[in-house]
């Protein structure tokens, strides 16, 4: 598994957060993945995972970076969101648009050029995610108005509830400066070996 849309481990907490699941007694179809950054809350522009498991960098342009409050527009459900339109002919699938939703803060503006690994936004629970848990609803589409497609190749995780990836390496311990007198004292120490001791 390669890099996902967060550094470190990522999680899909519940099965209804998977792509293609239904909610509300089968009335609402879920067009993306609800991904939680376990070790980082910064949402990143993803890579494309090739069939052999290698990841290919991709790039595009930010076409939306906003929040919609008018409930007659269905995108109000996404809260603060970023939409990236991919440059043409980078991947073999039909995906052209990527949506990163429910953000608490946006780190890009409309018109910005973005590449894999670049920071896009901060994970949150805005829109219809209010009161749930901070996450990113990650959705990909062929056109801006079409139905969501399976985002697994971009999320770099299976479309199943669980925790994926590895925690970042812990930071190297801080070295404490030692004076030259202390170094000399340490090097002057000797090891003394004591031989077998008799009971007498």
Features:
6% helix, 2 helices, three-stranded antiparallel sheet, Glucose Permease (Domain IIA), 200 residues, single chain
Protein model, in words:
- This protein has one domain (10-164): Glucose Permease (Domain IIA), CATH 2.70.70.10.
- It is globular, with a radius of gyration of 25 Å.
- The relative contact order is 0.23.
- It is 6% helix and 30% strand.
- It is mainly beta.
- The strands form 4 sheets. Strands 1, 4, 8, 9, 10, 12, 14, 15 and 16 form a 9-stranded antiparallel β-sheet that branches. It has a 3-stranded antiparallel β-sheet with strand order 5-13-11, with no helix packed on it. Strands 2-3 form a two-stranded antiparallel ribbon.
- The N and C termini lie far apart (66 Å).
- A hairpin with a 6-residue loop joins strand 14 and strand 15 (148-149).
- The chain has 2 helices and 16 strands.
- The mean pLDDT is 88.
């Amino acid at each position: 598994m390669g890099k996902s849309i967060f550094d470190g481990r990522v999680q899909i907490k519940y099965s209804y957060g998977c792509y293609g699941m239904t909610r509300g007694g089968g009335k609402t179809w879920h067009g993306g993945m609800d991904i939680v950054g376990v070790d980082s809350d910064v949402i990143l522009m993803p890579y494309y995972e090739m069939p052999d498991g290698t990841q290919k960098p991709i790039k595009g342009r930010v076409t939306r970076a906003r929040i919609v409050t008018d409930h007659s527009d269905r995108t109000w459900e996404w809260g603060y969101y970023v939409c990236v339109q991919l440059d043409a002919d980078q991947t073999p699938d039909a995906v052209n648009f990527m949506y990163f939703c429910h953000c608490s803060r946006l780190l890009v503006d409309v018109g910005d050029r973005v590449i894999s690994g670049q920071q896009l936004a901060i994970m949150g629970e805005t829109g219809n995610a209010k009161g749930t848990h901070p996450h990113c609803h990650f959705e990909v589409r062929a056109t801006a108005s079409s139905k969501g497609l399976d985002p697994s190749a971009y999320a770099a995780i299976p479309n199943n509830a669980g925790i994926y990836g590895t925690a970042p390496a812990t930071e190297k311990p801080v070295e404490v400066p030692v004076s030259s007198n202390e170094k000399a004292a340490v090097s002057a120490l000797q090891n003394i070996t004591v031989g077998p001791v008799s009971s007498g």
